[in-house]
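Section 5: illustrative case.
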């Protein structure tokens, strides 16, 4: 029985090697219209609707079977004839190209699905580790790395190439697995709705490649600092720094300690309070979070670290000519950017920036290490605020367990340190079994533990003379200071944080001379992260 074709009639033999055929995509190589190996020897389905059939093979059982399948799938086609060699050439060229295009497109869908899964878990980072024989994928959720799946090495290599080469909007010209590279995904069409952007960093390893994706979530533009975990006293000090027209305020902490989120809230609050009368200009690498009312600029596409440093320093210098009231520098990472940031503060601008430092007191050491002069670093009219912070997991209020009921689960050493620093153990809680409110984790997000120094001349006199212990004692005694460790202990003593989780981030709770002479009796409440 002769098959009725979906589109008329058999054309006379025609060569597929014309321009229109070359522009078409081969559909029968893979996908829903994939032909078997025997069928591909005799036919080729093109994206423009033509079914090329080898001359003299119209009634071949493989050809008839494939045509019947297309009809069942209601796929329109029209038959044209071609030489067997021409069919082979089409599969060798167009087929391979179509396969690559389809695979690339499918990997983009896979990559976006991976980002969506990470958002659902509220992950801060995705780690993709391409090893010698396999690929591992991990999410960082509430500060911990959690494996979420594995794949073949080949799969991981294609995923990395897709994320970097097809989805990144700020990157080098091409993905190079054997080099360190940075990029970002900023096209919202390529991202789940929960994300504003994704920062990408890659590095070659002894076995393959590591790619880390930092997820930048869309925030509601909140300008309040207390919900992040800052105490009322700390929020008040930051408010005073915001209201000061000049000076450089520096937030220190390791990667992932929430510095960028704090900066966003500080600047959002400043813009809202000024009701649009303040020109806030940011210099970032790349832009991380949108700040309504700010002019945000990116330093991107540098070919090397030296070039990036030069461009960053030039951007800060240029910013001073753009009539800003406040300049936010995403990160001070080298001497040039540090000098330009200080120069901006010395010439009548308010400057906010971040740096990698272990404590508020250590920020001054970090600036000296970057090459600034002691005179610049220790001038209290130039450096007006030193802030340091960490993030600690916050206990779920619905399933947390009183220490009295779970004390046996804590090692004796931890219990001993806890007794040294907390007066009333009845208010201490530890992680519970998990519930529907926290997704079975026992924790709900993370809360800030911080220290804020508003240095004066005497404080910097101690720093200038290298008397760091005296500077810290003066800060604690005369400036009303409180260390991050003390802030964490307050949260432990009010049942907000598990003591073990606090020690994972900050070390032993009874460390430090200041804590040895202080026991906490009065506790600030009502201003911590929920």
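Designed sequence:
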């Amino acid at each position: 029985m002769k098959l009725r074709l979906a589109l008329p009639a058999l054309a006379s033999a025609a060569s597929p090697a014309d321009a229109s055929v070359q522009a078409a995509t081969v559909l029968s190589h893979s996908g829903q219209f994939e032909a078997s190996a025997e069928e591909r020897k005799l036919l080729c389905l093109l994206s423009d609707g033509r079914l090329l059939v080898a001359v003299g093979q119209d009634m071949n059982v493989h050809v008839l079977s494939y045509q019947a399948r297309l009809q069942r799938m209601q796929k329109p086609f029209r038959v044209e004839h071609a030489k067997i060699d021409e069919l082979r050439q089409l599969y060798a060229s167009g087929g391979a190209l179509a396969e690559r295009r389809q695979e690339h497109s499918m990997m983009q869908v896979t990559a976006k699905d991976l980002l969506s899964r990470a958002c659902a878990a509220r992950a801060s980072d995705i780690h993709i580790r391409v090893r010698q024989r396999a690929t591992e994928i991990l999410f960082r959720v509430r500060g911990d790395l959690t494996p979420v799946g594995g794949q073949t090495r080949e799969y991981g290599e294609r995923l990395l190439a897709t994320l970097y080469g097809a989805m990144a909007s700020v990157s080098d010209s091409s993905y190079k697995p054997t080099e360190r590279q940075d990029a970002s995904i900023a096209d919202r069409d390529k991202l789940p709705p929960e994300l504003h952007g994704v920062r990408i960093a890659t590095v070659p390893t002894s076995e393959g490649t590591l790619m880390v994706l930092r997820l930048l979530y869309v925030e509601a533009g909140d300008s309040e600092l207390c919900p992040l975990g800052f105490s009322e006293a700390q929020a008040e000090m930051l408010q005073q720094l915001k209201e000061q027209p000049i000076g450089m305020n520096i937030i220190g902490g390791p990667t992932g300690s929430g510095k960028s989120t704090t900066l966003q809230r500080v600047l959002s609050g400043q813009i809202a309070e000024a009701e649009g009368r303040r020109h806030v200009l940011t210099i970032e690498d790349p832009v991380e979070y949108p700040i309504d009312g700010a002019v945000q600029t990116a330093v991107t596409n540098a070919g090397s670290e030296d070039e990036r440093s030069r461009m960053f320093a030039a951007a800060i210098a240029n910013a001073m000519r753009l009539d800003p009231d406040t300049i936010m520098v995403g990160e001070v990472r080298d001497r040039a950017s540090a000098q330009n940031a200080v120069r901006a503060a010395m010439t009548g601008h308010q400057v906010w920036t971040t740096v990698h430092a272990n404590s508020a007191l250590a920020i001054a050491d970090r600036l000296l290490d970057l090459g600034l002069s002691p005179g610049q670093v220790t001038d209290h009219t130039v450096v007006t605020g030193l802030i340091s912070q960490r993030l600690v997991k916050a206990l779920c209020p619905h399933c947390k367990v009183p220490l009295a009921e779970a004390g046996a689960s804590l090692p004796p050493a931890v219990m001993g340190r806890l007794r040294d620093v907390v007066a009333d153990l009845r208010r201490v809680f530890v992680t519970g079994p998990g519930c529907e409110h926290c997704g079975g984790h026992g924790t709900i997000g993370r809360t800030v533990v911080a220290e804020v120094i508003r240095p004066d001349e005497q404080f910097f006199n101690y720093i200038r003379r290298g008397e760091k212990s005296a500077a810290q004692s003066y800060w604690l005694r005369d400036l009303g200071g409180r260390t991050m460790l003390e802030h964490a202990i307050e949260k432990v003593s009010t049942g907000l944080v598990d003591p073990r989780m606090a020690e994972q981030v900050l070390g032993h709770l009874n460390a430090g001379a200041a804590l040895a002479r202080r026991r906490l009796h009065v506790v600030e409440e009502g201003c911590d992260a929920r």
